[in-house]
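Please produce the structure of this protein holding adenosine-5'-[phenylalaninyl-phosphate].
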Amino acid sequence: MSLQNFVDSLDGLLNEAKQSLDSVASSEHLEELRVKFVGAKNGAIKAVQKLMGAIESEHRPAAGKRFNEVRDAIQSALESASERLGGGSQKISNEQLVDPTLPGIRPVLGQLHPITQTIEHLKDIMGRLGFSITEGPEIEDTWHNFMALNIPEDHPARDPLDNFYLATASKQMHNPTDRDAMLLRSQTSTVQIRVMETQPLPLRIISLGRVYRPDAPDATHFPMFHQMEGLWVDKNVTMAQLKSVLRLFATSYLGSDVKVRFRPSFFPFTEPSVEVDYWWNNNWIEFGGAGMVDPNVFQALGIDSEKWSGFAFGLGVERLCMRRFGIVDIRDLYRSDVRFLRQFAS
Ligand code: FA5
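Below is the modeled complex.
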């Protein structure tokens, strides 16, 4: 076959393809034309390509060059026809995907739980009164939870019905009188002991954290709650200072109109001891206990009670939070109902 005849066949094919593709009016017809001209098996371009083998070898490079040009020209004519018919079947423009006139979606912002907000607030107030912040473990031994706090073996506070004693790998059931029996701490007063065991005197600390008691839940009780423990040990610390600190704290946190009442009470680790009430909703509500550190506690830790004196207090964080936010039922704090919690924006 001569080069000229081959080129004529190619040009004829290109003309035919262009004419058909210029007038194609549907995607179905376009697909038929694609198969007809460039189909992998029986496309017309394939048939012309086969003719190349019959061309004299010296003209084959020119024939190949022309063949490629025509094949590319048919390919781009197919693409233009496809675009003219709407960009093929699947192409959708970004403008079609996004409707900028729709209202935006407001992102859901989290916020701090009211108890977390309260803890931060209490730390802030007590920090300004010169107290530094310490922490202690929630799983305790009976030494820190009872013995060192002068709570004797037969004291009802150690009863298994009033505490969450733990089973450990070595023991299924702990005898509550064992020094190494473990329990979920029932009060943050454990931290008083841990601090006096490890830190040099004088000291002025608070510790905020969870405590656990098998109390039946009601409006003011929950089996897990938080306490703020305070401890001030120095030379000549007095009961008058204890009362001043608690009054200052109450007015800073609850407002200058808050009424504070101290009632004589008993705790094994303080002497004398008081209970602290604040006036709320036409009622006196007990917020915590306090007192002067009992000399027996100092002695258990090897501290000279003739030289050092101190006061300690433990306040219920939930009850403070409830007083400030006007929450009447402690259980609402732990229902995890975001409709309720969202009211207390931080
Ligand atoms: C104590 O826990 C003592 N450790 C406080 C103390 C510390 C006295 C230092 C002296 C020196 P009490 O058991 O009264 O005391 O608890 C203190 C406060 O925790 C209570 O006044 C109350 O506000 C809160 N509280 C007690 N039980 C619950 C409970 N089940 N749910 C919520 N708050 C509670």
